[in-house]
Design a protein that fits this description.
The complex is a heterodimer. By secondary structure, chain A is mainly alpha-helical. In chain A, 79% of the residues lie in helices and 0% in strands. In chain B, strands 2-3-5-1-4 form a five-stranded mixed β-sheet, sandwiched between helices. The longest helix of chain B has 26 residues. The chains are: A mainly alpha, B alpha+beta. The interface between A and B is large, with 38 and 34 residues.
Chain lengths: 210, 326
């Protein structure tokens, strides 16, 4: 177990070193080097955004904006943290902004019932249909995922962030503290509280499904 | 109470961050308490459900789309950067622009300025020469000052006086019509017309003395002081006009003497006009000869005060001598 953990840590260190070199090239104006980083981290960042926002399209746009912001600010990146940690912080900022915008938009258009609204469930069904996957197990799996995502989405943004970073992306308390710019103790207390809320919410949602 | 305590510790227990004692306490309690064991299982399930969430895939061409925007941004910032960044380029551009505007403003001011200052000198003369009699009509300077007048000025005189409109303006006489034989200036007109520093004071003095018998003398003093060349005139290097007044028993004879004196000391363009009982002589002269002229004129009659400065920068000055009957 200890050997596996050491190997993972070494891999992370190596990845960090490689990223640092790529970032250095970006800082010298090598735009292709930034392309390498985009290619490498697009999925990871999109998933952070998606779990935070809960809307695929909005998450895609937020991720694009985040990479653009990162490119603009790449000169200021000093390498104190790993590029992925720094980038995740930017994605979270973009996600928070998106959520605010969506909230304002939905408040403004709240009474408009003429517009077809795509729900998470609808999106999941459409996705499954698109994949030509009609197996009941697959539909069940997607439905469960939708409900879990809804429970995460129901959390306060402060709790949601730590859940996404810890449970989904697997960051350490220290890294989460760096990303959110809060103390490790705060990270832990938020996480434990978030788990408590999630346990209750999931029990409620999944209880009927056995 | 114990269950509440344990259930609050369960998330930390799952994370593996409890101390050995706390861990042992939770393990012991959940083994015997069904509710707490169920809660522990729920925590485990929740963690599993969240952990089982599958990653969503980026849409096709997502990275390319991002890079297209990045390249667009790069192009934009490249152009803007060249124009406005870094700041040390921007500041000299602004400074250069400010200097260019200042230079243009000065040039524009200089181009317009010469048309303005004709009035003070001519108006001052108007005080002394309010009437426009037959003799005045022949005054070439008066003609030159009014280019819009249809009567042509004598070409020879014009050439001598100067080439530019500015020069003409400086030596011009007024165009304002007035009673032909009037030699006394009107109070209202005289005082504000003096532009030289000594002018207003002398004008006021003249007004005070107006009622007294020696009105002519007051006018002579004004005449003598007024032509001191203004700073504007000096800066533009126009021909300065010096006016002198002489009180003589016989103005006609004194005029002849002055004319011959002017000829002797190299005066050119000498003209003599009669205005009532007084004689007006104009000429152009080397400024170095002015002291000599004044010294000699003192022998012909009583001179008014001399101008303070007889050293203009110009190589030629215009002299106007008025001879009044004593």
């Amino acid at each position: 177990m200890a050997t596996l953990s050491n190997r993972v840590e070494n891999e992370i260190c190596l990845a960090g070193d490689v990223d640092r070199e790529i970032v250095a090239s970006c800082q010298k104006g090598d735009i292709q080097a930034f392309g390498v980083l985009v290619e490498k981290y697009q999925k990871k960042m999109l998933n952070v955004a998606y779990r935070m926002i809960g809307d695929y399209q909005e998450a895609c746009e937020a991720t694009q904006e985040a990479f653009l912001s990162a490119y603009r600010a790449i000169g200021k990146f000093r390498g104190d943290a790993a590029f992925s940690t720094w980038m995740t912080g930017i994605v979270l900022n973009q996600a928070r902004n998106r959520l605010k915008q969506m909230k304002t938009r939905s408040r403004r258009e709240g009474l408009s019932l003429d517009e077809p609204v795509e729900t998470e469930r609808g999106a999941a069904l459409r996705e499954a249909a698109a994949e030509n996957c009609t197996a009941p197990e697959e539909l069940e799996r997607k439905e469960t995922a939708r409900m879990v995502q809804e429970c995460i989405g129901a959390l306060d943004p402060d709790f949601r962030e730590v859940v996404v970073l810890r449970e989904i992306r697997g960051y350490s308390y220290e890294e989460i503290g760096e990303i959110l710019k809060v103390a490790e103790g705060t990270v832990k207390s938020r996480l434990f509280r978030a788990r408590e809320i999630l346990r209750g919410a999931l029990k409620k949602r999944m209880g009927g499904r056995g | 109470m114990k269950c509440d305590q344990v259930q609050k510790m369960l998330p930390a227990f799952l994370e593996g961050v409890l101390s050995m004692t706390e861990k042992a306490f939770v393990e012991k309690h959940t083994a015997s308490c069904e509710a707490c064991r169920a809660a522990f299982e729920e925590y485990q399930d929740a963690q599993q459900l969240i952990g089982n969430l599958e990653d969503v895939e980026p849409p096709p061409g997502f990275a390319q789309k991002i890079m297209a925007r990045v390249e667009e941004e790069n192009k934009k910032s490249g152009i803007l950067g060249k124009l406005f960044y870094p700041l040390y380029i921007k500041v000299p551009v602004q400074a250069a622009a400010a200097v260019a505007v200042a230079v243009l403003a000065i040039q524009a001011y200089r181009a317009v300025e010469p048309q303005k200052p004709a009035t003070p000198q001519s108006d001052m003369t108007a005080v002394l020469q309010p009437g426009e009699d037959s003799g005045r009509k022949k005054d070439v300077r008066g003609e030159a000052a009014r280019p819009e007048k249809k009567e042509p000025a004598a070409p020879a005189q014009e050439t001598r006086i100067g080439e530019g409109a500015a020069k003409d303006a400086m030596i011009s006489l007024p165009a304002a019509p007035a009673p032909p034989s009037e030699t006394q200036p009107r109070k209202e007109e005289s005082a504000p017309l003096f532009q030289t520093p000594a002018g207003p004071v002398l004008a006021r003095e003249a007004e005070k003395r107006e009622g007294a018998a020696d009105g002519k003398r007051a006018k002579m003093e004004m005449k003598a002081a007024a032509p001191a060349p203004s700073r504007e005139a000096a800066s533009l290097q126009k021909i300065a006009t010096f006016g002198f007044a002489l009180l003589a028993e016989d103005p006609a004879r004194a005029g002849e003497k002055v004319q011959s004196l002017l000829r002797e000391i190299g005066g050119s363009g000498i003209t003599m006009n009669r205005q009532g009982e007084s004689e007006i002589i104009t000429a152009e002269l080397n400024p170095e000869r002015l002291p000599l002229l004044l010294d000699q004129m003192k022998t012909f009659g009583e001179m008014s005060e001399s101008p303070r400065s007889l050293k203009p920068a110009a190589p030629l000055v215009s002299v106007r001598i008025e001879i009044f009957r004593k």
